[in-house]
Amino acid sequence: MSKAILERLRSDKLRQSNSDKLIANYMERNIAELPFETARSIAGRVGVSPMTVGRYLRRLGFDGLDELKAELRRGGTGSNPAWQVKGQMERLQADIKEGKLLAGLIQQQMDNLGQIYELTVAPEWQRAVETLVSASEVYVAAYQNVRGIAQYFAAQLSYSRSRVTFSDGLNGTYAEILDGSVPGRCLFLFDVRRFAYKARPLAEAARKAGVTVIFMTDEFCPWASEVSDIPLVLPGAHGPLWDGAAALTAVMDLLISNVVVEIGHSASERVDRLTQLQDQFGDFE
Questions:
Q1: Would you tell me the crossing angle of helices 65-74 and 3-10 to the nearest 10 degrees?
Q2: Within 10 A of 76 (CB to CB), how many other CB atoms are there?
Q3: Which GO terms describe its biological process (predicted)?
Q4: Domain co-membership, 148 together with 255
């Protein structure tokens, strides 16, 4: 942990106003999590504006949060990965007995869901919907803990349109996506911190092969717009426990609903046909 940064945060010079004290206290208590924060997320947690956070960072000696993160990395500051308990277990156990922990987690999920609306009215959202409707083939890929969610997304999307495939990469080549045999392909890639090693190379190779890449990720990803045609960036989790997938799942469901409406009557006809096939093979009651 960088002692120099902590000393500056604790100095009277940087604690002159109430806003200074709120920001300094938050950064000091959560310095290991700062690599996963944004000026906006810090502002929301301490009750000030993102501009106020930006001004404070400049007084701290950094031209924005990215510069502070770089300094923390150089100083050897560790940060909790996505699936590691981030608070002291004794305090968490006390909070859950008092009802504070779960109430706080619910409030966090509500805040994240509120931010999702901004994504649904962004130009990228409509472009993603139009691409998922019009693509000749849709390939879905994901890794680690979000793999199951991506498989569910692919299965749900396949009820509304044909030629949707979850690509697991077990063939070692992703040839089904990258061989260029069919024009108009789309890759829908899911990845959130901690980011999978294969995600960025796959997105870059897909774009090079002429495949449209929709990349759904969280605010902790610094390269989303560099590797995708349509980045869909969600709020990240900042709670005392490991990261959850509520926001990711909610956006996935909203996206599929929007696609179904955009497709129209043919989506209903496809569901009817799939229902007949389900009855024929007897997998459902």
A1: 130
A2: 8
A3: carbohydrate derivative metabolic process
A4: yes
Residues 58 and 193 in one domain: no
How far lies 91's CA from each of 58, 81, 88, 251, in Å?
A: 34, 20, 5, 32
Q: Measured between alpha carbons, how far is 273 from 158 in angstroms, rounded to an integer?
A: 12
Here the CATH number for the domain that contains residue 27 is 1.10.10.10
Residues 118 and 57 in one domain: no
Task: Mark out the alpha helices in 146-282 (DSSP H runs).
Answer: 147-158, 175-178, 199-208, 224-227, 246-263, 265-281
Q: How far apart are CA 179 and CA 200, in angstroms?
A: 18
Q: At what angle do helices 39-46 and 18-29 cross, to 10 degrees?
A: 110
Q: 153-190: string of b/e by CB count within 10 Å (b at 16+)?
A: bbebbbebbeebebbeeeeeebeebbeeeeeebbbbbb
List the 164-166 sheet strands across, edge first: 164-166, 137-141, 185-190, 212-218, 230-234
Domain interval for residue 23: 3-79
Q: pLDDT by residue for the chain (285 residues), tens digit each?
A: 467 888 888 888 888 899 999 999 888 877 777 776 788 889 988 899 999 999 999 999 998 888 888 787 666 544 445 545 555 556 666 666 666 666 766 666 777 677 788 889 899 999 999 999 999 999 999 998 889 999 999 999 999 999 999 999 988 899 999 998 899 999 999 998 778 889 999 999 999 999 999 999 987 787 899 999 999 988 766 555 556 677 888 899 999 999 999 999 998 899 899 989 988 998 887
Taking the whole predicted model, whether its pTM rises above 0.70 is answered as no
Confirm if 79 and 33 have CB atoms less than 8 A apart: yes
